[in-house]
Amino acid sequence: MNPNKKAVVLLSGGIDSAVASALANKAGYNLFGLSFDYGQRHKVELTAAKKIADHLHFARHLIFPLPLNLFGGSALLGDSEVPKGRTDSEIQTGIPSTYVPGRNLIFLAIAIAWAETLSADAVIIGAHTIDYSGYPDCRPEFLDSFQRSANLATKAGTEQRLIRVWPPLIHLGKAEIIKTGSELGLDFSLTFSCYDPDEQGRACGLCDSCLIRKKAFQAADIPDPTLYR
Hints:
Largest sheet: 5 strands, parallel
Strand order of the largest sheet: 3-2-1-4-5
């Protein structure tokens, strides 16, 4: 690993950010993890993020306080019940109530700011658009647009020291992402996906994120280590 080759990783504690981190690690980046305490009801994911950062030997891991729950507007922020037991077609149609307005836009802006401070080469995000929940801020069009904005908005960009916004999973399905993580030796028991865990941190097994996770592990023919209630 080249200590001068740095990347800021948006690390949620879920499968996607963990596998994206493992790929960035393999690519030789010195990793700086950025997680957000944004008032989410599934705050247990931050514990998972810490474990992943330790597992992959991150240079540093920050948990950034960002109380988006002051705005509300999402089931993940407690404004309504998390949808449960939806069919595949329902999951793949429309934008669900678990969408958090502007989340990735805000997260990426903060990640770019830290990356510029670190003189980092890249910002890594685990976004993908196959077998996902339909969030508009995961689309390639958005990430391409944000890259152009970051180039224009930063001192690094004006000096042609571009900070790459890299979504290494963007064209992979969930089962492919899990297979990739398995090949990289990632311990999936460290990851957490549920939107509505109980007080013991057990996954509900019925929210969109749990259903997508269970189906993907089954398709990948890899055991899911999640503790479901």
